[in-house]
Amino acid sequence: MPVMKGLLAPQNTFLDTIAKRFDGTHSNFLLGNAQGSRGYPIVYCSDGFCELTSFARTEVMKKTCTCHFLHGPETSERVTQQVQKTLEGQREYQAEVRYYKKNGTPFWCLLDIVPIKNEKGEVVLFLFSFKDITDSYGKTPSIHTFVTEKMNQTVSNRNLSFFLCQNVFSKPTLPEYKVASVQKSRFILLHYSVCKALWDWLILLATFYVAVTVPYNVCFSSPDDSNHDEPECDSTSRSTIVSDIAVEMLFILDIILNFRTTYVGPAGQVVYDARSICLHYSATWFILDLIAALPFDLLYAFNVSVTSLVHLLKTVRLLRLLRLLQKLDRYSQYSAVVLTLLMSVFALLAHWLACVWYVIGRKELASNDPLTWDIGWLQELGKRLETPYTNGTTGGPSMRSAYIASLYFTLSSLTSVGFGNVCANTDAEKIFSICTMLIGALMHAVVFGNVTAIIQRMYSRRSLYHTRMKDLKDFIRVHRLPRQLKQRMLEYFQTTWSVNNGINANELLHDFPDELRADIAMHLNKDILQLPLFSSASRGCLRSLSLHIKTSFCAPGEYLIRHGDALHAHHFVCSGSLEVLKDGMVLAILGKGDLIGADLPGWDQVIKANADVKALTYCDLQYISIRALREVLELYPEYGSRFTEDLHHNLTYNLREVRPPLSVFLLCISSRRLFTLQLPVHDITGTVQPVQY
To answer: Model's pTM, two decimal places?
Structure first.
């Protein structure tokens, strides 16, 4: 699959921001609906609040945020009235109040109330913060006194809530309840941008340039080149100084850009924070890139005497080829690019072997008496070109002719058995030829002989991805879908593919034994099966339920359920957050671990949703259909009755439409008269109510 751009849709991260910015000892908070007309209901409660008060989240949700369920005989009536006035006036407030836990245990609490606004400046939520001060109350100066003194020392002429924001949150103001815009500096480069792609191609070409020139300069130069016995080699090195320095500057500039380039984090989110980018790059490729970018060629610019040792040090630049592996996934979606890279690697290998072949010939010349020994391949080449070696390594063919002959020999040995016009005569040359032919056989088998198999093996999943993407685009074009709907379809397809890589779990596990398939399903769905709702179910019941649980995904702004829809499943939130809306008001905010659905209906009943459920962030969901749930409960009747009773108490939010279902609907038309019948129907409480039709 192509490299992911990351999850780019704007998200409402208010819930995550609130939870993260509270420290570990002060994470007890509630969120209340400031737009409600009936007692400001609680729309979210943190795990810390549940631990502090011993109430379960399902017991707290939809109660009023004045927290009457925490009141007791010693709760101050004055504070209670002041809290009510604060909510009505949408102001900030702080007080010390005595509350009671679920078991009746009293505790002293520092209560803070802060209004939360949306992008329009309207107060939409109230943040209630609870801090247990039982241990310090009455023994040391009160928290209120300490906070006030600290505020006077550090923040003059500021109200108390601003000081709390500075100490509780990392920013001086509370986050707003709105879709968060991406905070990106203008100096941050997007990793998926066209400019970055072009830059990567430029760096790739520079890397191949280094892979070609460095071995050539190392092998086609000798320690006595500085004596100018063969000035051609020195002039060759000098002729590439400008391009070598330019490549070094490119590598150094690439390091700087990598410190300012976004990346995709482990959770799939695009990381824009400069500090996180620097730490990530420093921990991954920085050391290798730094070594490969050492400016050895600046020695030429300062007229420093350069020996072959410097050329050997420059071989560390070949480490840059490892960066090619990082980018192969991006390039591999294009078949032509893959073939080009394979051919380039083959040619690069032939170039390296040609350099080694020349070094072997030079060493044979230097280690034998030229008057009695003349069977080396370089001497044979010199004789044919009528440029023989006269005194050791003096004379002989030009570097250009020697390199072309070396490359010709290695390519002919890699692709065939050679033609004999350039042949191995000495033992060292024959050993090298044997190794070259073995490498050539391997290259034939890996690159040329199996190129089709390689492409099919590497791109079977990618081919399926592109096939489905093409089908999707053809469908959009044929039916002329609007641009917005087209974008939503493409984003959903790409994101879900990145999650499951196009693998249909049901299809994949279809041929597995039922026992193994059930164990796998229980492992995959262990989060939802650990809910208290299923605590009394037998293992066999859980295994049957796990086989019917499916996964779903919802992007920010997408509706999971709309008001009036027939409810077909119960949904469990694995990650992300959603909001429950009705008439534009937030009724509840759902996060990880919440269960949303409705009471289990009868076989002849259809439940309609009483609100919209909309995703705030990217959400991973698990769901089980009501029909499948009924089938399993029929197999385990001893658990079915218990489940029906517990379901109502374990739903974080109940979407059941409060409307009496019709048991009978009869319409009689005769002689152009409409007869109305008054039929008894049962409401949700079981009471018989006459309804006229």
So the answer is: 0.52
Model confidence at 366, pLDDT cuts 50, 70, 90, reads confident
SS3 of 418-443: the string is CCCCCCCCCHHHHHHHHHHHHHHHHH
How many Å apart are CA 124 and CA 447, to the nearest integer?
A: 63
- Closest to 475 (Cα-Cα) out of 495, 490, 460, 496: 490
- DSSP label at 139? T
Q: With CA atoms as reference, report the closest residue to 622 among 570, 572, 556, 568.
A: 572
d(CA 167, CA 26): 11
Q: How confident is the model at residue 524 (pLDDT cuts 50, 70, 90)?
A: confident
Q: Are 654 and 582 in contact (CB under 8 A)?
A: no
Distances (CA, A) of 107 to 52, 53, 557: 10, 9, 41
Residue 157 has pLDDT above 60, yes or no: no
**441 compared with 662, residue with greater pLDDT:** 441
- One-letter amino acid for residue 270 of the chain: V
Query: What average pLDDT does the segment 373-383 reach?
Result: 79
Side-chain half-sphere of 225: how many Cα atoms within 13 Å? 22
Instruction: Say if residues 62 and 586 touch (Cβ distance below 8 Å).
Output: no
- Counts of helices then strands in the chain (DSSP H, E): 26, 22
Check residue 396 and report its DSSP letter.
-
Query: How wide is the angle at C-alpha 590 spanned by C-alphas 654 and 117, nearest 5°?
Result: 115
163-167, 310-314, 357-361, 681-685: which is most confident: 357-361
Q: Provide the 3-class DSSP secondary structure of residue 692.
A: strand
Q: Which residues is 571 bridged to in the sheet? A: 596, 623
pLDDT at position 142, please?
43
Query: Which pair of structure tokens corresponds to residue 241?
Result: 């100084």
Query: Residue 563 — φ and ψ, nearest 5°?
Result: -60, 130
Instruction: Give the whole-angstrom CA distance, residue 688 versus residue 693.
Output: 16
What pLDDT is stored for residue 354 in this prediction? Answer: 92
**DSSP class of residue 608?**
B
Amino acid at 14: F
Among residues 330, 241, 321, the alpha carbon closest in space to that of 289 is found at 321
